[in-house]
Specification:
Helix content is about 75%, strand content about 0%. The chain contains nine helices and no strands.
């Protein structure tokens, strides 16, 4: 489920950025710039796909302790980037004016096409790289990814963008962003806690043992019970909220500090707007 929320949020952000730029360029009659806009989007998507393949190749080249170190640091970096994105979006709810100003500057430059192309490419490619990083973190934490949920999130994000900019419908974006932000705060906390777990396994962070173990034993057929953190319901909770049936003290502290800290900052910047 976490992959659906992450992909939905990133694709929706990219759709809003492209939609705002397209609307502005169309309103000002910049047909050549619109072509460059779509070219920038397509190149950004291709570059994101290439980046995903390179990242998978890099990640697959580690074994043993090196693998745990790589996964641990990547999970912590992903949590930090995700947390930063949540707070940044809360502080910049109305990005339309900023994007239109950047587009206006690009239109006023001598190399008109390259300016719009670069603006579209950087905006979409950034979302693509964030998606790759976050999905890798979810995959490590959950032990896999759901392709169906990932594509569902993408189609949902594109669909809402289409409804806003093509059909002109009013969509409760504030509600979408608020709900997804709260869920992503828990996802980020789970990522950071799992990163701590991997660094504990690698011997970088001291492991003082598990503070509790509420995971039920395996079933007679060797499968995991529903509420085991590797079971159906437990894995869902693990992906969404970072649920762990047998956390270490440092993992629990990391989760609590991340969730409460991000929650406090998100609430503060949201109410200050």
């Amino acid at each position: 489920m976490a992959e659906l929320i992450i992909v939905f949020r990133e694709v929706l952000e990219a759709s809003l950025i492209v939609g705002i730029l397209y609307t502005y360029l169309n309103k000002t009659g910049q047909e050549t710039a619109i072509i460059k806009l779509w070219q920038g989007v397509l190149v950004a998507l291709a570059a994101s796909l290439l980046g995903s393949l390179l990242f998978q190749k890099l990640a697959g080249g580690f074994q043993g302790q090196a693998e745990k170190l790589f996964e641990g640091f990547i999970m912590i970096i992903a949590a930090i980037v995700l947390g930063t994105m949540i707070i940044w979006m809360a502080k910049n709810r109305n990005i339309a004016d900023e994007l239109e100003e950047k587009a206006s500057v690009a239109l006023g430059s001598e190399k008109l096409g390259y300016g719009i192309f670069a603006l579209a490419f950087i905006s979409v490619f950034r979302e693509g790289i964030e998606t790759i990083l976050f999905l890798y973190g979810v995959m490590m934490k959950q032990g896999g990814l759901s392709i169906v949920l990932s594509f569902s999130g993408a189609f949902l994000g594109i669909g809402i963008g289409y409804m806003i900019f093509v059909q002109g419908r009013k969509v409760p974006l504030k509600t979408f962003f608020n709900v997804s932000s709260v869920l992503l705060i828990f996802v980020a906390a789970g990522m950071l806690a799992y990163g701590v777990h991997e660094l504990e396994s690698a011997g970088i962070i001291p492991n003082y043992g598990r503070i509790w173990d509420i995971n039920p034993p395996k079933l007679p057929d060797g499968s995991y019970p529903m509420f085991h953190d590797k079971g159906y319901v437990g894995s869902l909770l693990k992906g969404l909220f970072g649920y762990n049936g047998d956390p270490s003290a440092i993992e629990l502290v990391a989760w609590l500090l991340t969730a409460s800290g991000l929650g406090f900052m998100w609430k503060k910047v949201s109410t200050d707007k």
